[in-house]
Amino acid sequence: EKVISQLGENFSLKDLGELHQFLGMEVHKTEKGLFLSQERYAQDLLSRLSMYNAKGCKSPMSTSCILSKNKSDSSIDGTLFRRIVGSLQYLTISRPEISYAVNKVSQYMSHPHEEHWKAIKRILKYISGSTHLGLEIAKSDNLSVVGFCDSDWAADLDDRRSTSGFCVYIGGNLVSWSSRKQASVSKSSAEAEYKSLAHVTSEVLWILSLLGELHFQSATKPSLEHHPQPPFSVNLVQSVKKEACLDLWHKRLGHCSYEIVKSVLKSCNQSFDLNTNVTLCSICVVSKIHKLPFNDSETEYTLPFELVHSDLWGPSPIKSKTSHLYYLNFVDQFTKFTWIFFLKQKFEVFDIFLHFKTMVETQFGFKIKNLQTDWGGEYRSLDPFLQSNGITHRVSCPYTPQQNGTAERKHRHITEMGLSLLNQSSLPLNHWDDAFATL
């Protein structure tokens, strides 16, 4: 009343009594404090979609649900989808438990598909069975600030960015929460966890600043709770002494070289014992072992098509718009020029090679002398034809793709560049053959 009277001296006010409902938010006074809910708003939303009597489910999203924008199922009405997602986002004001699920479906508002609509219906079914839930704000003299956070590392199949989630409590009351995609790709789960910690830290600092402006001071320092998986990602440095162990920091910094460890510790003004005996890390020995590289070939080719490398890529997990599942490449050793042909079935390799051989002889006036491939069955059917035309067929040894490295590296270049073009253009993955053909 004192605040209202002071405001009335400077502004035109009208006392409407105790607050019961405001912009779809219902406020109920209880013995413990206040209970905030959007029950009527949720019921109206379900009624508009004819799901008021829908059978409820126990969670807003299944743990096995993996959404993507590149699925080949049919598209749906984007206007209705966006309207429902907007309503669900408003419902998260008093229903923080659906924040993650709503965050996931809101990422596909531009081009929603059938699987995204099924995820929306799962959320609505959960709301149908829990319209009575809301937020309880209890009376408390405790103003301690506690934050919790977590991250979902690289769970997005489209851009491999992680999702950060946090919630902040004041005196046991939930006052702030968020579930949003991180701005950049995290190379490790530890990096994703630290980004999540940074998000909740900035939120806690803002809340402390707000409490300070309101002349409320927390009796204790704010605390952050974070339990990453696996737990050893934080336990390794819980008891670091002043003279830090190099072996400990070597493990904590991702098993980098000891010279890099020393450089990092010096730049951070962290003291360590220079006389520490550095032992060979057994984990590095097992994890970083690799085959010796093949020696470079000393054979020099002076004419085009003296040696042609070839390999078959596929099958693609996603069928292209033109029903292609494979592509066949031919790489000339002398010029390094590459030809790409798309296939629907593997048995088309023989016909495509005949077409390629005819094109080489007609357009360039050269003949193919050597063909280098792997031990694939699609190439074994070429042997009678190659022998009758005097073409030497060179094959790599089993389980040694390095011997056909030119074609293998070309595959990597084509797929990486093609997928980058698709991602930049926001095109679905079933256009992969169009992207590969431009390279």
Annotation, overall tally of beta strands: 13
Number of helices: 15
Helix content: 25-40%
**Content-based structural category:** alpha+beta
Pfam family, one: rve
Domain Integrase catalytic: 300-439
GO molecular function, one term: nucleic acid binding
InterPro entries: DNA/RNA_pol_sf, GAG-pre-integrase_dom, Integrase_cat-core, RNaseH-like_sf, RNaseH_sf
Overview of the molecule:
The chain is of the alpha+beta class. It has three domains: 210 residues, no CATH class; 47 residues, no CATH class; 130 residues, Ribonuclease H-like superfamily/Ribonuclease H (Nucleotidyltransferase, domain 5). The strands form three sheets. The chain has a five-stranded mixed β-sheet. The protein is elongated. The N and C termini lie far apart (73 Å). One of its GO terms (molecular function) is nucleic acid binding. InterPro entries: DNA/RNA_pol_sf (IPR043502), GAG-pre-integrase_dom (IPR025724), Integrase_cat-core (IPR001584), RNaseH-like_sf (IPR012337), RNaseH_sf (IPR036397). It holds the Pfam family rve.
